[in-house]
Amino acid sequence: MLEVEKLNAFYGPAQALFDVSLQVRAGEFVVLQGLNGAGKSTLLKALMGLEVTTRGRISYQAQAGRTDIQRWETHIRARAGLGYVAEDRRLFTGLTVRENLQVAAGRDAQAQEARVLDLFPVLKTMLRRPAAHMSGGEQQMLAIARTLMTGPRLLLLDEPCEGIAPVLVESIRDALLTLKAGGMPMLVAEQNQLLAAVADRLIVLVAGKVRGS
Ligand code: ATP
């Protein structure tokens, strides 16, 4: 599904990733671990073509076949099926829950909305609430739900459980397991052991390198 080969990433002159190689196979749930500053966020940004310059190969199984997307613009990667949720969630805090979902909707918006609300039932009870008036965990669910509204084929999540109440971490874990059962491949940067415990595979980054490679 996604194959990264010798990916190097730079913030200006400063290198943050060094020859990172990894794979996410079809239907696989991979958790990316590492200390703060190890490069988890940088790797997800590099996969999306955000903020960093990169060298290396990002081979993605798009609908048109396998292709190197390393030079593609971010919105083209998104259109090809990469669904990304940033650490800061980037919600429209002045809009309601429903409006946040609708701005992301593609074709078949009603059916999509019904599916994401089944995945995160708590959002059903707050459709008219401004996103600003939600807890951090509820906002995180909304951010994932909003990305799902675009119909991604691969999910990239940056620390979805960080700073979130344990009961909501369980809800997020369960939602991700439901997505996995539906065949959604996922690469999730996350330190929380509740997620690591259910991952198919862990990849550990240490100072910008994959440990053990
Ligand atoms: P965290 O859990 O704190 O987000 P992380 O594993 O996601 O940690 P990154 O944020 O990817 O780590 O940071 C990797 C390295 O890149 C660090 O050395 C960090 O200082 C550096 N870095 C991150 N963002 C920038 C930036 N905008 N400009 C320059 N250097 C950066």
Automatic annotation (TrEMBL):
<dbReference type="Pfam" id="PF00005">
    <property type="entry name" value="ABC_tran"/>
</dbReference>
<keyword id="KW-0029">Amino-acid transport</keyword>
<dbReference type="InterPro" id="IPR052156">
    <property type="entry name" value="BCAA_Transport_ATP-bd_LivF"/>
</dbReference>
<dbReference type="InterPro" id="IPR027417">
    <property type="entry name" value="P-loop_NTPase"/>
</dbReference>
<dbReference type="InterPro" id="IPR003439">
    <property type="entry name" value="ABC_transporter-like_ATP-bd"/>
</dbReference>
<dbReference type="GO" id="GO:0005524">
    <property type="term" value="F:ATP binding"/>
</dbReference>
<comment type="similarity">
    <text>Belongs to the ABC transporter superfamily.</text>
</comment>
<protein>
    <submittedName>
        <fullName>ABC transporter ATP-binding protein</fullName>
    </submittedName>
</protein>
<feature type="domain" description="ABC transporter">
    <location>
        <begin position="2"/>
        <end position="213"/>
    </location>
</feature>
<dbReference type="InterPro" id="IPR017871">
    <property type="entry name" value="ABC_transporter-like_CS"/>
</dbReference>
<keyword id="KW-0547">Nucleotide-binding</keyword>
<keyword id="KW-0813">Transport</keyword>
<keyword id="KW-0067">ATP-binding</keyword>
